[in-house]
């Protein structure tokens, strides 16, 4: 029998609502034919797909990153405002891209799903002045040039966009705007930050960290950024596509390996991301000591998802194993909630997607990853607490022992309720778990269950509800049996 003990007295931090973010960019059919699809009879008066709006609400999406991604250094916001008939096209990766979904449409759509807009400025072909103008367009009051343009375009009240990223993947040589050294980025980013803060000193800034702080060529990139930009920085970012890069890459082997070996390998390498959080936490701690302050600086994982199947149009199908990997992402967010304060699943529709639409038609389904995020909403605004997991392990290829049961927990002291999140990675076996709460007695256990015995199970247009969430209830004994390949989000009421 496996033993799991939750200690509500050992606090990690608040589970920040901003970890429930998502990401859209003009890549393949994410925005055009996905979020924005005027040709579909399922779209509203603004051309926004209604099923996407409703599913986004169900997922509890708290913030949305836009316009990129690798599209950001090609995007000029002026091209996406004003009369749609007069908006020019943007050339990106060899094809002209529409600008009918620009800043005003993005803000309107965010308002419809109840999410904070999160804008990534152009540090490739853009300038500090352009970034400043974009902030003024969004947040300025009447009487300034760009605020008056917004007003003329039909939005008299400021949008008050709070979250702004200074470039995308600047530390990576594939990115337009790449800087070879952190010092090169620092010089440029300081100018952008000063200009943007001049337009609105209340905004929160996300700076480019090392694309991934492990297996990346820039030694001490993050420390240099944190130190030199300390007065401006609110977040430092990281990107992680499990299965795509570095030690965890299975792009060239997953088909040969098959789904079972791939599942256990990628489950193991979620530990690599947790190591990255630990390293970045200590970098923040070190720089705080250097500046003799304790400034709150968050880690923004503003692009993440499984991504090892490389389809031509980025329409990646997610099976149940991939969905449980997203559950592991959320377990990491909860376990590291003192610093894991902003996250964005990439992307929302049709491109490495949480949901899929038939562009121009009415077909629609949600992928399993979207249901996993929805389940973890039970932890939102709760206090993340320590969990001891005495469960079974398996031998990894890099990490010597890997937990078959992946866990995290949060606690609401006022309602005396513990949320316990458990993933059973075992693809064959049930696991019996004895749950204990330190110095407390369990009254009732209920919650939700997600999973499928078939590792390649996924949702499709033909079978849109193969993967779904089920209700789960048991007695107050604290002993439960976990199904293979499953996620449980349990609400434990204390006596």
Automatic annotation (TrEMBL):
> Record's family?
Belongs to the glycosyl hydrolase 51 family.
Coiled-coil features, chain-numbered ranges: none
Q: How does it assemble?
A: Homohexamer; trimer of dimers.
Q: Give the catalysed reaction(s), semicolon-separated.
A: Hydrolysis of terminal non-reducing alpha-L-arabinofuranoside residues in alpha-L-arabinosides
Per the UniProt record, which residue ranges are transmembrane?
none
Start and end residues of each Alpha-L-arabinofuranosidase C-terminal domain: 302-486
Which pathway does the record list? Glycan metabolism
Leading EC class: hydrolase
Q: What is its EC number?
A: 3.2.1.55
This entry's Gene Ontology molecular function terms read: alpha-L-arabinofuranosidase activity
Taxonomic source organism: Paenibacillus sedimenti
Cross-referenced PANTHER family: ALPHA-L-ARABINOFURANOSIDASE C, ALPHA-L-ARABINOFURANOSIDASE C-RELATED
- What name is this protein filed under? non-reducing end alpha-L-arabinofuranosidase
Q: Which GO terms describe its biological process?
A: L-arabinose metabolic process; polysaccharide catabolic process
Q: Does the keyword Hydrolase apply?
A: yes
Pfam families linked to this entry: Alpha-L-AF_C, ASD1_dom
Q: Does the keyword Transit peptide apply?
A: no
Protein keywords: Carbohydrate metabolism, Glycosidase, Hydrolase
Q: What is the lineage of its organism?
A: Bacteria, Bacillati, Bacillota, Bacilli, Bacillales
């Amino acid at each position: 029998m496996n033993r799991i003990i939750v200690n509500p007295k050992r606090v990690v931090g608040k589970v920040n609502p901003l970890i429930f973010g998502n990401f859209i960019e003009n890549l393949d059919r994410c925005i055009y034919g996905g979020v924005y699809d005027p040709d579909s009879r399922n779209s509203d008066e603004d051309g926004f797909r209604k099923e996407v709006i409703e599913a986004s609400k169900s997922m509890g999406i708290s913030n949305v990153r836009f316009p990129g991604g690798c599209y950001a250094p090609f995007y000029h916001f002026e091209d996406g405002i004003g009369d749609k008939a007069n908006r020019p096209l943007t050339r990106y990766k060899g094809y002209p891209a529409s600008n009918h979904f620009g800043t005003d449409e993005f803000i309107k759509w965010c308002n419809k799903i109840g999410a904070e807009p999160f804008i990534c400025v152009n540090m490739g072909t853009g300038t500090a002045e352009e970034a400043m103008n974009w902030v003024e367009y969004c947040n300025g009051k009447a009487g300034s040039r760009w605020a008056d343009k917004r007003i003329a375009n039909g939005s008299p009240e400021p949008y008050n966009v709070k979250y702004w990223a200074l470039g995308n993947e600047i530390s990576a040589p594939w990115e337009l705007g790449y800087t070879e050294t952190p010092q090169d980025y620092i010089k440029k980013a300081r100018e952008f930050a000063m200009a943007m803060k001049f337009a609105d000193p209340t905004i929160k800034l996300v700076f480019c960290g090392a694309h991934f702080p492990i297996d990346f060529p820039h030694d001490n990139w993050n420390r240099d950024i944190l130190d030199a930009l300390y007065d401006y920085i609110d977040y430092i970012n990281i990107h992680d596509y499990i299965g795509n890069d570095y030690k965890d890459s299975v792009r060239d082997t997953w088909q040969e390996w098959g789904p079972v070996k791939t599942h256990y390998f990628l489950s193991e390498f979620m530990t690599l991301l947790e190591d990255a959080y630990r390293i970045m936490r200590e970098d923040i701690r070190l720089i705080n000591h250097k500046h003799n302050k304790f400034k709150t600086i968050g880690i923004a994982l503003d692009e993440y998802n499984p991504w090892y199947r490389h389809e031509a149009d980025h329409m990646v199908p997610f099976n149940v194993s991939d969905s449980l990997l997203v559950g592991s992402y959320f377990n990491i967010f909860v376990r590291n909630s003192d610093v894991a304060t902003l996250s964005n699943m990439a992307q929302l529709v049709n491109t490495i997607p949480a949901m899929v639409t038939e562009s121009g038609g009415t077909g629609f389904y949600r992928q399993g990853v979207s249901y996993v995020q929805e389940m973890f909403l039970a932890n939102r605004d709760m206090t993340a607490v320590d969990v001891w997991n005495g469960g079974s392990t398996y031998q990894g290829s890099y990490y010597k022992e890997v937990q078959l049961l992946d866990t995290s927990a949060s606690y609401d002291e006022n309602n005396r309720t513990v949320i316990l999140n458990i993933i059973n990675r075992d693809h064959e076996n049930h696991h019996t778990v004895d749950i204990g709460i330190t110095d407390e007695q369990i009254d009732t256990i209920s919650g939700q269950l997600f999973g499928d015995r078939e590792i390649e199970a996924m949702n499709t247009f033909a079978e849109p509800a193969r993967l779904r969430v089920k209700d789960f209830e048991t007695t107050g004994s604290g002993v439960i049996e976990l199904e293979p390949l499953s996620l449980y989000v349990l609400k434990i009421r204390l006596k």
